[in-house]
Write a structure and sequence with these properties.
The chain is an alpha/beta fold. The protein is built from 11 helices and 14 strands. Helices cover about 35% and strands about 20% of the residues. The strands form 3 sheets. The protein has an 8-stranded mixed β-sheet, sandwiched between helices. α1 crosses α9, α9 runs antiparallel to α10 and α10 packs across α11.
Length: about 325
């Protein structure tokens, strides 16, 4: 299968509290597992938007690994480079939501199968048009970080482009200075960076989201897609600033919505859509991503996304 898009990084399952404001430090009810992991969510949504997508990562040889691989394969992904690791469990994230909109995560990733990466084969990248990397993947382990750097080199050698979602975890990367050093090689190689305003400021040390995005352009990327949540997105290029309005929805679970946004944006660029239409596809994918419980459950097929863009009718979530 000639792949157009490859995502590399952590694959895990998410287990969440059934009630809001239910902390993780006491016995209570959970629901799950739900397939998750930022690059895996991106890959799943990109495949459901109609493109040939491969995922590079690792899962454990256990039921959670089966949960992940079954979902990705059912949605058409190539997982030939997402092996089962016999001596490590599949990565898990436990999460609870609070009424002020905040979330609390407990991760088991670095010492799980997610922290292991298969040996990369340059031939796997021969047809790739876009490689997607998340900052969270750069923070999991040095081994995964080095694998991401090598994947960048293989993609560039094949003539492909890099998409980077900072998805930053400063506390895991040793502070802002280390964060900029670790993310620097990917930022400078990227064609498109997809940050929040805070992430753009962290990456550049520049105050103000607009100025930080322009500073990112000076680092090498050709496009910056600033995620603005309920306000949509703003797209920056060397000669243009374009605001693209959001699609309003009733949010059920925001986890994964940004990864679905990324997938819509990368697919739009891959299809050479006008930038305003790229932003609309990304905003619609991201909005729908928040309408179902479970980080990957809001990844909808292309026909559903396009109908939502036309009619703004949210798919049945029952």
């Amino acid at each position: 299968m000639a792949l157009e898009i490859i995502a590399i990084g952590e694959a895990l399952v998410e287990v969440m509290r059934t009630r809001v404001d239910d902390p993780l430090d006491r016995a209570s009810e959970f629901v799950g597992p739900f397939p998750s992991g930022a690059p895996a969510i991106f890959a799943d949504q990109a495949a459901r938007l109609g493109h040939k997508v491969g995922f590079i990562g690792a899962v454990g040889d256990d039921d959670f690994g089966t949960c992940l691989l079954d979902r990705l394969q059912a949605d058409g992904l190539d997982v030939a480079h997402c092996p089962r690791v016999a001596d490590r469990a599949t990565g898990v994230a436990f999460v609870t939501y609070f009424s002020d909109g905040s979330r609390r995560f407990l991760y088991h990733i670095a010492h799980a199968a997610a922290g292991r990466m298969p040996d990369l084969d340059p031939a796997y990248f021969e047809s790739v048009k876009f490689l997607h990397i998340c900052g969270s993947s750069l923070s999991v382990s040095e081994h995964m970080r080095d694998s991401c750097y090598r994947a960048v080199d293989f993609t560039k050698a094949a003539g492909g482009r890099i998409a980077f979602d900072p998805n930053l975890r400063p506390e895991l990367l040793g502070g802002e200075e280390a964060l900029r050093r670790i993310c620097g090689p990917v930022v400078e190689a990227a064609h498109v960076v997809l940050p929040s305003g805070e992430e753009a400021e962290l990456l550049t040390g520049v105050r103000g989201a607009d100025d930080a995005c322009r500073a990112l352009l000076d680092r090498g990327p050709e496009v910056i897609a600033l995620k603005r949540g309920a306000e949509g997105c703003t797209i920056f290029t060397a000669g243009q600033k374009l605001d693209v309005p959001a699609f309003p929805v009733q949010a059920v679970d925001p986890t994964g919505a940004g990864d679905c946004f990324d997938a819509g944006f990368v697919v739009g660029l891959l299809e050479d859509l006008p930038l305003d239409q790229v932003g609309r596809l990304a905003n619609a994918s991201g909005a729908l991503g928040a309408t179902r419980k479970g980080p990957m459950e809001g990844a909808f097929p292309r026909a559903v996304v396009e109908r939502f863009m036309k009619d703004q009718v949210t798919p049945d979530t029952t």
